[in-house]
Amino acid sequence: MAVTKFKKASLVLLGEVEEEVISILQSMACCEILPETAEAKTHSWAEVIKSTDEALSDVRFLLRFLEPYFMEESGKLERLLGEKPTFTMEELEGTAKNTDLASLSAKVRKVERRLLEIRTTFSKIESNEGILRKLEGFPYSLSIISSGTSRISSVVGTLPVVYLEKFKDAVQELLATDGEVFVASFGPKETDATVVLMYDKERANQVGEICEKVPFTKLDFPGELKDTPEEELSKLEQAKDKLAKEEESLRKEASMLASEWVPTLRKLLDYYSVVRTRYETLIGTARTQKTSFIRFWVPEASVGRLKKELAKFEECIELKLEDPDESDQPPTLLENPRWALPFEPLTRLYGAPKYGEIDPTVPMAPFMFLFFGMCLGDGGYGILVASAIIYLLSKYKIVGDTRNFLNLLLLGAFSTIAVGALTGSWMGDMVDAFPFLALLQPIKEKLAVLNPMSDPITFLGISLALGVIQILFGLFIAFWDSLRKKDYMAAFGDNGGWISLIVGLLLLGGVKSGFLSGFSAGLLGKMLSILGAVVLIATQGREKSGLFRKLLSGVLSLYNITSYLGDILSYSRLLALGLATSAIAMIVNTLTTLVISIPFIGWVLSIIIFVGGHLFSVVVNTLGAFIHSLRLQYVEFFSKFYSGGGKIFQPLEYKTRYVKIVGNNLLDQ
Fold it and tell me: What is the pTM of this model?
């Protein structure tokens, strides 16, 4: 529930050691560098960054082209989820020195360029084939269309079939023996016909008139087609075969290059990215002719190790450490017990706490754990989800927030199994629906203490009671936080007033409903309700001017009790989602038993419905359980004491995609 404390560090160092010092800070991954003003920046490292960018550009191009041809030895999923290969910066630097990126890039660009030319040629051939197939049966050489003769020209195009006779009549009328029409064959369902009009060049004006009388669309005829359509189609087929063989050869070459170079290029991409980040930091430092000045945030727990790592530069540097002052905005680094780590991504997703504020991860964790189980609420589904996650975690060495998220789902699955056992829900009513599982009924009934399907009111009462507990817990956290900040008016006037009023009304409601008995409970409820109302009336209008406006605002603030009532009613979704999961599972089981009696295919259909239906149900309801449980934390719980708005700690570190660079990362220790 803590936010790590930071020190503000100021480091002055001689220019001759600045690159080595920055390299150490980057390997330690515990220092967030503060940017300097524009006037303080220098461009002495601009050329180095330029050359690094050129190398990065080559590597990105090579990976973009070669990766589609690369066959992963262990599959893409294992590469994404599995452990990254580890290297030191020295090893990666040696790889970079021994790789001639310029030559490799030129070679691959040549292959890419030729493949692009082949694709363009293929497109042109396919276009020409389409034209030639329409002209099959043309009685002359195509040169009469593409280039004509000394006296004859041709025009080729399409027109609707219904205008075909009108077109022929116009040719006969205006050209007579000086023109000839060829109509390509067309099917009964085709609406357009392809025609070739050959004519005496001196009759070009009449040809224009003919084409204007009908909706004639002229086609551009390729000039390289000279022989008959059949001969040209044969030539094109031969050209396609030749291009296909060349393309296959180039793809094989690309596959060989990918197999040889992709692993190296992935290492180089991470190496140059890390190096560029380092030089960006260097170019952003303030400096004089011989010295540089760097400011950064460092966690208090890392200060000792930082001093130890920089001890060898004692004569070349001066390190000053101080606490943040009121004008500073330190970053946020969450610090929670190990059992709460799976819930940290949820806090960061909402927004990290500001420096010195409360971290809501630990207060949220038990409720998120319980609510997920109540929303999914089926022991069989919990076993399926847990099994899938345990398989992933055992097969792949998953790290970081991905592992935390899977652990969160695993905890939710365990909660679901517990809730399912207590409510007797195992893939719905599977134990009751299928006779061969009758031997499990005594175990199921012995574990079950409540059936929400037959007694939803009790489950609803439990859901609303949990809502009351969480909302009051949130108000108590806000009360404690205000006391911690010595804001006594907010502690007692705001949070304390609402705690007193809500608890008092709950006691009165319990007495009226018969849930609570005794004069003392009723009296305590009245006293707390009156006390809370008086405190709220007296304090909620304190920012207004004038006694009347203060009192009026205080009285009107009591209307906000409806907001708290709405928040409590929101927890009814725990019942709704739990019932939905059970109902869907029961429907799947019912359909399975209904189709099993169908002759011949009944068993097959029942298996498909059972497996497919329950898989669909577990995926959809797991997603719903996660979203709605999270909504209760963000909307109903966090709103009582937490606002977020902090800036996540972003240290100078090795940010990589394909490899893990081993070094002195303090945050991993």
Answer: 0.80
| Rounded Cα–Cα distance for residues 159 and 191 (Å) | 9
How many whole angstroms from its chain centre is CA 180?
65
pLDDT tens digits along 436-452: 888 888 888 888 888 88
Taking a C-beta distance cutoff of 8 angstroms, is the pair 157, 216 a contact? Answer: yes
Q: Is residue 418 part of a domain?
A: yes
346 with 217, same domain: the answer is: no
Query: Looking at the structure, do residues 394 and 526 belong to the same domain, yes or no?
Result: yes
Give yes or no: residues 421 and 544 share one domain. yes
- Torsion, Cα 16 18 19 21, to 10 degrees, reads 120
Q: ∠ CA(162), CA(163), CA(164), 5° rounding?
A: 95
| pLDDT tens track for 36-74 | 754 444 556 777 888 888 999 999 999 999 999 988 776
For residue range 505-514, list pLDDT tens digits in order: 888 877 777 7
The alpha-carbon radius of gyration of the chain (Å, integer) is: 39
CA 322 – CA 56 distance, rounded (Å): 38
Q: Is 147 exposed, middle or buried (0-12, 13-18, 19+ CB in 10 A)?
A: middle
| Residue 154 belongs to domain spanning | 139-227
pLDDT digits (tens, 9 = 90+) for 86-114: 888 888 989 999 999 999 999 999 999 99
Assigned domain for 60 exists: no
Q: Residue 505's closest CA among 565, 572, 460?
A: 565
- Is there a domain that residue 27 lies in? no
Q: Is residue 468 helix, strand or coil? A: helix
Are 218 and 355 found together in one domain?
no
CATH code of the domain covering residue 214: 3.30.70.2750
d(CA 209, CA 174): 9
Say how many domains are in the chain: 2
Q: Would you say 24 and 664 are in contact if contact means Cβ atoms under 8 Å apart?
A: yes
Residues 412, 369 contacting (CB under 8 angstroms): yes
Same domain, 543 and 412: yes
Percent of the chain with pLDDT over 70: 94
C-alpha–C-alpha distance, residues 403 and 557, integer Å: 45
The amino acid present at 590, given as its one-letter code, is T
In a domain, 32, yes or no: no
Question: Does one domain contain both 348 and 221?
Answer: no
In the numeric block, the tokens 């409590």 are attached to 568
**Rounded Cα–Cα distance for residues 505 and 522 (Å):** 10
Q: In what order do the strands lie in the sheet with 152-160?
A: 179-183, 192-200, 152-160, 217-218
Q: Which of 179, 212, 227 delimits the end of a domain?
A: 227
The per-residue pLDDT for range 572-591, each reduced to its tens digit, is 999 999 899 988 999 988 88
Q: How far apart are CA 398 and CA 130, in angstroms?
A: 53
Q: Which whole-number Å values give the CA distances from 201 to 141, 212, 299, in the listed order?
A: 18, 18, 89
